[in-house]
Amino acid sequence: MNSDLTRESLLEVFIYESQKLLGELEQAILESEKTKSIDDAAINKIFRAMHTIKGSSSMMCFNNIASLTHSVEDLFYFLREEKPAKVDSGVITDVVLECADFIKVEMQKLENGSEPNGNEKFLAEKVKELLLFIKQDNGATAQKDVKSQSKAGSAVLETKAEKKAQDASFFGLRADEKCYRVTIYFQEDCGMENIRAYNAVHTLIECSRIFRFIPEDILENNETVQTIKNEGFKLYFCSDMKLEELENLISQILYISRLELDEVSLQEASGEILNQPKETVEQLATTSVQEAVQPKGEVETKPVETLSSEVKQVEAKKPEEHAASTQKFISVNVAKLDKLMDLMGELVISEAMVTQHPELAGIKLKNYYKASRQLKKITSEMQDTVMEIRMVPLSSTFQKINRLARDMGRKLEKEIDLEIIGEETEVDKNIIENISDPLMHIIRNSMDHGIETQEERLNKGKPSKGRIILEAKNTGGEVWIIVKDDGKGLDRQRILEKAKKAKLLHKPESEVSDREIYSMIFLPGFSTKENVTEFSGRGVGMDVVKKNIEKLGGVVLIDSKPGEGTTISIRIPLTLAIIDGMIISVGKWRYIVPTISIKESFRLKQKELIIDPEGNEMLMVRGECYPVIRMEKLFCVEDGKKKMEEGIFLMVEDDEDAACLFVDKLIGKQQVVVKAIPKFIKRVRGISGCTLLGDGEVSLIMDVAALVRE
Amino acid sequence: MARREQIEEVFEDTQKGKHLIFLLDNEYFGIEIKYVTEIIGVQSITAVPGQSHYVKGIINLRGKIIPVIDVRILFHRKEKAYDDRTCTVVIEIGEVCIGLIVDRVSEVVLMAEGDIVAAPQVSGEKQNRFIKKIGKVGNEVRLLIDCEKLLDENELESLEKLA
Asked: Where are the domains of chain A?
């Protein structure tokens, strides 16, 4: 039981670390793709990431991840050490991203509590082949590599390899073993037959003892490609596996077109074999054993040690970035932060209760007030700091979008230029978790529906590359995330027709504003796309987006210009926890209006009220007309003041719109801790939360934006 | 070994079958004790507009804000003024906390599984929607409230409102 608990926490740490590393790795490789070359910093980053994940996944006994990361590590080790000149960064990027995706899927399985049982063999083979290809492409270094790798082995390693080679050359069959000969033919035009043949050797040597293969000089001599093409690649080996098992194993090697597997007697085999120098077999045996991806302790330790010492050297060379970053951060359990925030909120309330206690009213206490001001200052600063602790920059979310844009662009065959502005903007951790899905959906929409194909764009005179700007900025109390594309914009007419058909129009056509029409896409089931594609068209996206954003207390706005593009803005209140509020009273209830929304307050006489033909009340202030909202009517409060002279007006505004609230009295300013409306209570338009006033009474906080927007 | 199992069993069963009995006028109702977190007097309630008529508003419970339901209104009875014996039974279902305002709280009884039977279905009356089972105590019968249904009903109504 105890080990279960520790395994749980180990697992959590493993998932968290690996995901972080994968994120960095993705970033590095995507950058490299953009610059079309993989620089040293990126190679080191990726190598380190893979190395760390390999280590931790081996420790957790997730062998498939360990094996895959091992192959990628080998690849990047080669890139780092040999610095080959001919390298196709595009191909490398693709492979690395595929591996990262595989690991991500396995992480997902782990998070859900299931087993990470993905089969990494295909991918690992691919990586190994790529490495061989690069080695081959960059000529003689391949040979040198083989030799240097065998030197890097320990004494233990060498004797083991030698033993294996010796056994092979003994031609003696062990119990249960049979002698086989297999001739492998590769597919036409698969290329690099000699490398594939080497692969076959590698595959077989893990479960059998190979004593000869023809042709022997596959790695060094390119002419062997032709030989293999014509005559096939022949292998002679002893194995205790059954014929069918062997056939299965060998046919799994990529690009095999057919194979002829026969059991032969030792005499036949020795008869068929030409005299070849033994060294080749030994050499290959050594390297194969070393490259063998078996997580057996001894075999792995020595190479890893040499590698790690080199990694240390590399790390010493780059002290600034990496060392600095490991010291600056500490991971904290979110539950602790939540508790801290709650306590902070209680502290603010208590501080108000002490410094504004009714029993002190009117008494002259100069020094006391000085001290209480100091207390208020400190509490204020503490509160700001605690808020900041929970803030996380948006960059991780934005990087995910980078990846999404790239992958989608490829699939849809559209070239997209994604510009990210303000990714260092910080938001509360809660918000980050809930905003990445809606954002991805919006970007998917832009790319799928909005941006036209290259042809269409060129015809319209637009640049062939579509442009999407993803911007985040901090505006006082809110965080704005804006997605702007230069695609074809929303089709006003189509939306209108769809709305009419679905009977969603409640106003006569001529009176519906553009914004209202565009907002219809938020209705569930709404989609003007005829076909459902892999990415969109089912009409389930936008309303989920809207719900998710509203859950965070935010809003989504759409603006569009046909032919020019669409802009979607998400606005989320920044500090959910503590705001400056003005206490107002209506009837016997007290409400809070955030001070940030209040522009001014004033009194008016009854006759200055204007009533339009439909009964709506309005006011003129300095030449501008504003709608009047009577609080007592809005919230059905009894005893609210009705006559203008008995109450007071508050002009409140939100961004562009403004209105005048009619309330009974202004009681005072206070910092309030915003508490979420309990789940059971249904959301009411105009109320964004509640709080506890100094005397313990619960007070509702008004959502000015919703009221004003009507 | 056997003793250990016995002890564990007893531990599990401490709350099972126990119901809190409360009164509305003369009728007794029961609620599974596993949902009840505390019982407090009636506090000042802040009304919230736009809710179902049985949701009276929200109260401050030692810093936590919870909604309160008047069970009399929920079961279509005439509203009565709160007196000093009126209680708020705070229940917690999963993450949701609600307070139920009742006339009187009576006792906690243990009802064996055999004493709990399904309530007869009388269509049309709203009361029955929240009462799934009936428990027998001696010669008398207590209507047992289905807490989860309370939550579901509320969900349904909010969805209807949005649609």
From this structure: 2-139, 151-295, 334-389, 392-573, 578-709
